[in-house]
User: Which sequence fits this backbone?
């Protein structure tokens, strides 16, 4: 009975440590992936034109009329 109580006490006391062990690597992976995706989107946007210039010109023409 004492062993079970000791184990349960340890579980509750170490809950914060376990949370840190799990969440820190997940946060690092998320930030890394986020940076890679932003970089890839910037490169793809620079290589493949998406017609933003045409949209800007159309808006300017509509404003002038």
Assistant:
């Amino acid at each position: 009975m004492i062993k079970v109580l000791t184990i349960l006490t340890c579980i509750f006391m170490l809950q914060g440590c376990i949370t840190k062990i799990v969440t820190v690597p997940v946060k690092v992976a998320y930030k890394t992936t986020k940076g890679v995706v932003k970089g890839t989107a910037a490169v793809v946007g620079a290589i493949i034109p998406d017609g933003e210039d045409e949209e800007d010109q159309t808006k300017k023409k509509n404003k002038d009329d």
